[in-house]
Amino acid sequence: MPADFWTALLPDHLLLGLLFAVMALEMLRVDERVARPLLIVTLAAAWAVLLRQYATGNAVTLVADEFRIDRFAVLAKLVIVGCGLLWSTLLRGRVTFKTAFLASSSLLGASVVMDSAGFVSLFIGVEMLSLPAFALMVHGAGDTAASEGAFKYLLLSSVATALLLFGIAFAYGATATLTIDGLTASLRSGSAEAATAGILIASGFFLKAAVFPFHGWAPDAYASARVPVTGFLAAIVKGTVVLALVRIVSTVPLDAFAPAIGVLAVLSIYFGNITAIRQQRFRRLLAYSSIAHAGYMLFAFVDRTGSRPDDLLWYVAIYAATVIVAAAAFTVLSPGESDDLRRLDDTFRAHPVAALAFGLAMLSLAGIPPLPGFFAKLFIFKSVIASGYLVAAVIAFVGVTYYLALFFRLFATEALVERADSASGQ
Question: Which pTM value belongs to this model?
Answer without folding.
Answer: 0.89
